[in-house]
Amino acid sequence: METRTGTLSITVCSLVMFSFVSLVKGSLSFNFYAASCPSAESIIRNIVSSSSSTDPTIPGKLLRLVFHDCFVEGCDASLMLQGNNTEQSDPGNRSVGGFTVIDSAKRILEKFCPGTVSCADIIALAARDAVEIAGGPRTMIPTGRRDGMVSVASNVRPNIVDTSFSMDEMVKLFASKGLSLLDLVILSGAHTIGTAHCSSFRDRFQEDSKGKLRLIDKTLNSDYANELIKQCPAGVQPSVTVNNDPETSMAFDNMYYQNLLAHKGLFQSDSVLISNDSTRKLVVDFANDQELFFENWDQSFLKLTSVGVKTGDKGEIRISCASTNA
What we know:
By secondary structure, the protein is mainly alpha-helical.
């Protein structure tokens, strides 16, 4: 354990340096709104907190939202744009939630600091706050992102993780975003909160001649599989969801990794993390040490929210997150 932790510490130091250099180049900075809108971060946090107290599923939705935004066109709020053939219209994004929270924060910020705070920064900060509100670490992330002006449905599928992905497919996709194998394992820990539709793991079961589901993916714990069948029987309504984490569904903790070792990863893309020697070692480390997971989460989340950012004279500061200013 000491050897693996030491290796992780060295890796984290490298990631910090890489992230710092990337941020300087990207012109993001800490306290970006200190002069132009000093209350920006507290306003966003208050909106996320009040929304989460009303709907405890909000933190998971906001965390998923930032992933789906940053992986397509970079962290530029392209997912917020509405209209025909935008990213929201792709089936992979139709179940993404949390948009109303971002819109609420934007409306208030436009009253206090018109034309100042980007929707892209609101998404990143809201996801950061959601993690802390759910019991996770508070991550310091820089701001200064600008909003993109392009949102095309056809860009979604090649750029988001499918729940049936193999290890190689996930590694390739994460690498294309500048994210490492370590980042892959850490950021997968986001599945410690949130929910998923029954269709997202349907490929692990097969319907028999009597219309009942049976487990065909033997990497899944049979008792857990039976619970999933009860919650998601054949013919279940498309709107039905189950918790990503069957143990502590509303808490951002390291239970996700403990679930993986117990063969209770909801998606195939979760389960494959223990089929690879390198990633399994990381899973074991994080399952045994929540603080280690939290420390590494900070750096990987910082990298995630810096993917493909637009700064300076690129993009714009939208007045409404749902449409460009033009």
